Amino acid sequence: xxxxxxxxxxxxxxxxxxxxxxxxxxxxxxxxxxxxxxxxxxxxxxxxxxxxxxxxxxxxxxxxxxxxxxxxxxxxxxxxxxxxxxxxxxxxxxxxxxxxxxxxxxxxxxxxxxxxxxxxxxxxxxxxxxxxxxxxxxxxxxxxxxxxxxxxxxxxxxxxxxxxxxxxxxxxxxxxxxxxxxxxxxxxxxxxxxxxxxxxxxxxxxxxxxxxxxxxxxxxxxxx
Length: 224
Known about the structure:
Helices cover about 40% and strands about 30% of the residues. The chain has about 220 residues and is an alpha+beta fold. It comes from Microbacterium immunditiarum. GO terms for molecular function: protein N-terminal-serine acetyltransferase activity; protein-N-terminal-alanine acetyltransferase activity.
C-alpha cells in the first residue's frame, strides 16, 4: 500500500502545509517514533509544567510512550463530529515537535482549539511562531475554520507571546487544575475576521509562500 492509497481512504494522512523550510504533516509510525524521541530529550525544565495533562513527566521512555499512545488514540478522530488533527512539525526535514487542532461539531461550528509542543533544542528560534501561523493558514484558508482558540498558563509567557505576536485577541483568564493545584490560564481567540486582518503581517513571519496539499480531500470529509 502506498501513501497515496492510504490518503485516498483516510485523507488526513495526505495533508501537508509548507512554508520554506517549515512543514506540517501527518505523522506516520516512523515519524511518530522520531517525534517521541524528540520529546523524550526534553521540552521544558523539571520545575515547569506548561500542560494541563502532565504527559512530559517520567523517564525518557515513559515520555516517548505517552507521545505514541496519545497519537495512536486520536488518529481515528478526524471527522465532522469530532476533529483531532495533530501534525508533525519538521524544519529542514527534521522532526521538531507537534502542532495540533481539536474541536467538536466541526461541521456546525468550524471552531477548534490549537495546541503544540517543541523539543527543547528547537526552542528560541522563532519556530513556535511560524508553525502557529502556518497552522492558522491550514485551518482558515484550507479547511474554512471560523474560529481558533489557544491558551497558556500564566507562568508560560513564551506561549502567550506567540499568541500575541500572531494577533490573537485576549479572551479572559480562567482557573485550571494542574498537578493538584489551581493555576490561572490565559485564553486567546482568533476569529476569521481577525485572521484576515493580520494575515499579510503574519505572512512576513513565515518568510516564504504557503503551500497546502491534500486539504480539499480532507475538507470534503469534514464538511460531509
